[in-house]
Amino acid sequence: MHVIEIIAENVRDLLIQLSDRLLVRYRDPSGEVRWALLAKGQRPAGPVESVIRFEGLKAAELVEVGPTVQERLLLILSNPLVADLLLLIGLFALFAGFKTPGMGLELLGTVLILLAILGFGIIGVEHAGLLLILIGFGIAVAELKTHVGLLLLLGLVCMALGSLLIIPMREWWLSLSEAARILHTITVAALIVGVSFGLLIYKAARAQERKVRVGVEALIGARGLALADLKPEGEIRVRGEIWRARSVEGDIHRGEEVIVVGREGLVLLVKRPKES
Asked: Cα dihedral sign for 170, 174, 175, 179?
């Protein structure tokens, strides 16, 4: 039915076979313009308007043109799995960076989010799915205030559902098995990323809640030695430093061991250890 005119093994074979053909433009008996690929000596079924010859084509140089670096990058970013993961990791990295400044996570998160937006711009996304991911992220962040675990779980569920909805599957003409594989991978990845960063943020928040003890505060609980009689004040040596101290439980004699229990300004409050 002239659907296929040439069957070639490769590009060179195609050029060799084309060298003996003519591409003819003609009008059929009804007056409609048609094209036909004919062997030399064949005539079309109507008056010829133009002819394209392929003589010498079999000796043509073949030049292979591959994708540029930019095209390779866009190909990676347009992968639904990559774009979705970039968004999830970027959101958590951005928040973790704000909670733990100085590590550069906020910059990393910003870059990843921008790359994800670029990828989604190529793919085309369902806005409901994107909104669900953002809502889920906000709910997960709110977990830092409650420390119950329920909000974190709810946020992860929302982000997983948003990841499933964010890619317009019908526009991609995917098979059921391929679509199921993508959805399964996105769901697992969203849960892993969410739990990982959730633990990181939780640990960072707990660390920031701890009081930093430096200077005089770090001496509370430390043991020292009385350098003079404390009646009730005198000098003591604690951790290699000499401090003014006041006894809170009677007089302490020179050479006795003391323990720091508090301070008043730059004066340490001390007493005898219980075992003394």
From this structure: negative
